[in-house]
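Possible regression after last week's pipeline update?

I re-ran a chain I had predicted before the update to compare outputs. Posting the input and the new output here so someone can diff against the archived version. Not blocking, just want to make sure nothing changed silently.
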Amino acid sequence: MALSCGSISTSSSLCCLSPIACTPPASLACHFPLRGGYLQLESRHLASSLGFRNRKLSANCYGSGIRASLDNSSPGPDEDKNVSRRQALLAVLAFTIPGSQVFQPQRFPQALAVEDEQMKIELIQRELKKVLSKGKSAGVLRLSFHDAGTFDSSDNSGGMNGSLLFELERPESAGLQRPIKVLQKAKKEIELAFPVSWADLIAVAGAAAVLECDGPVIPVRLGRLDASGPDPEGKMPEETLTASELKRTFQSKGFSTQEMVALSGAHTIGNKGFGNPNLFDNSYFQILLQKPWKIGGPDDGMTSMIGLATDRALADDEECLEWVRVYAADQGRFFTDFSAVYTKLVNTGARWTPPQA
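New output (post-update):
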């Protein structure tokens, strides 16, 4: 009996970067000849976690996806004959993700754990790609700010912990239900292979949203634990703060003025009025320098709607304005600094899964 584990969207080039040699014919089909026709896992711990040891695995890539079947006719002496779709899917990922070292016996269990995390990240990104679009990216990125933005360094409360799911009825969370529904679709598919916390999913999704809009690649690690309830109220920065109040608020969360200005550049996508709403670039800072809301006056309906009060405050504060000028002139510097501070943001206040022994 063969167990089909379904399809995983990928490309033919991904297949051919597998550690298992393959040569794609003109049809873009790759066939993976396994060692002796059998799956051989060198780590007993990893083999046990996948649920099988010496099974025959067939995997084919046809350009649009990978389909795998697991021969279930000859289980090991202490194995269950019923292998789940999750277990088969993990096995296929081990074969098909570039750079996988699962089958190299000289590697140690600690190294295998790192590779396993990379496989998980690859799968999360792949499922997010299916549900994300440029038009949805601003809302998805906003989730990261609202989940992590409750952090308070004075008592180490709040932070990136998935508590946002309990806070969707708060005024500051208006409009976040829609991007949550987008991520729920991806989460359902991901958890066919392994469980993923909301904190991890939101963190990776925010980085994926930036990339979807042609922004920088932002590496995000996994392992955040979810909270069991909401964070305290009144911890999110209000949209009416002055520059001085804004700087004090971000300082209480562990962020410098430069980091605050870089994070504010996320408003370059979405409907805040800063350039192309679907392109992650440095237009936000260039438009801040122009101060169009002052040129048009309060009665100009178009210019009066550009940005939030906190965006405009950056252009009227000398310390903030220094960094606005830097990023307006150098998009590469903005990308570098935004990537660094986004990584810091999604790690802020996070509680982590204890490392395995």
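Follow-up from reviewer: compared with the archived run. Residues 109-131 form the longest helix (23 residues). Marking as no regression found.
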